[in-house]
Specification:
single chain, 140 residues, alpha+beta, SH3 type barrels, 2 domains, five-stranded antiparallel β-sheet, 18% strand, elongated
Length: 140
């Protein structure tokens, strides 16, 4: 049997390359998983939170549209175990009982308080407060 020192060195180099290659593969997989999280999972969970908040802020008198396309006005909200509400769908006062999860959108436009409007108007595009001179050019 003939053993060469160069064969041992080549085997050690191959093992180091294989170990570096496995780290590279793990990094690529981690990047792919992170991309899926930020592109698919995170926006979907944000949207679910917004929809749940919209359904929880529902008030009597709001105009709504259901997932099935039925449009109506909320007449009564049941906060018991059924978690349902009653909507009026037409001028002849037809009532339908639906589940809260079946609400697709709230069509009622709600007014923003005037103090909030005034605060929003004083801010520039980048969220900084504008100076008084910039708001009233006539005062210059």
């Amino acid at each position: 049997m003939h053993f060469n020192l160069l064969d041992g060195a080549a085997a050690a180099t191959d093992a180091a390359a294989a170990q570096g290659s496995s780290y590279t593969i793990l990094i690529v997989y981690a990047v792919i998983i992170a991309a899926f999280y930020f592109i698919l999972i995170r926006p979907q969970s944000k949207k679910k939170k917004q929809e749940a908040e919209m359904r929880n802020n529902l008030e009597i008198g709001d105009e709504i549209t259901t997932i099935g396309g039925i449009m109506g006005r909320v007449v009564s909200i049941k906060d018991d175990d059924s978690d349902s509400l009653i909507i009026e769908t037409s001028s002849d006062r037809s009532h339908i009982r639906i589940k809260r999860w079946a609400i697709s959108s709230i069509d009622t436009v709600k007014e923003v308080p005037t103090a909030k409007k005034a605060e929003d108007e004083k801010r520039s595009f980048f969220g900084r407060k504008k100076k008084a001179e910039e708001n009233n050019p006539a005062e210059k």
